[in-house]
Amino acid sequence: MKTTNQIEKALEKRIDVEIAEVVDVFIFQLKELCDTYGNGISTKWYKMVDDTQHGEKELTLLSREKVRTILQRMIKENHGEAMLAKRIRELLDFKIKIL
Fold first, then answer.
1. What is the rounded distance in angstroms from the CA atom of residue 64 to the CA atom of residue 86?
2. What is the 3-state secondary structure (H, E, C) of the chain?
3. How far apart are CA 22 and CA 71, in angstroms?
4. What is the pTM for the complete model shown?
5. How far is 7 from 32, CA to CA, in rounded Å?
6. Would you write out the chain's pLDDT as a tens digit for each of its 99 residues?
7. How distant, in Å, are the alpha carbons of 38, 52, 56, 72 from that of 59?
8. Gap between the Cα atoms of 63 and 34, Å rounded
9. Beta bridge partners of 57
């Protein structure tokens, strides 16, 4: 029988996969947008800017893979705990029903 820690780690891996799927759809659509409107030029870098009162200030240039990594991390930081809590509740509810 798996320990609670092993179950939690397995749920976290499932959450990582779910987040990756969401980001993959976005990255695919971003690539499709580039392929459709890029005039044959594949955009490999995305400029991240901060709009301030004094105009745009460039923060960094990001590759598509870096955009993917940042989005995955951002989504996990903002939603990971709630996703895990919901998965644990669902698992506990299921266990209660079968007992």
1. 31
2. CCCHHHHHHHHHHHHHHHHHHHHHHHHHHHHHHHHHHCCCCCCCEEEEEEEECCEEEEEEEEEHHHHHHHHHHHHHHHHHHHHHHHHHHHHHHHHHHHC
3. 10
4. 0.74
5. 38
6. 567 788 889 999 999 999 999 999 998 998 888 888 876 566 667 777 777 667 766 677 788 888 899 999 999 999 999 999 999 999 888 888 887
7. 23, 12, 9, 19
8. 13
9. 50
Cβ-in-10-Å burial (0-12, 13-18, 19+) of 15 comes to: buried
Domain that holds residue 35: 4-98
Which residue matches tokens 């809590």?
85
For 91, the token pair is: 């698992």
Token look-up 């993917």 returns 68
Q: Which residue has the tokens 């991240």?
A: 48
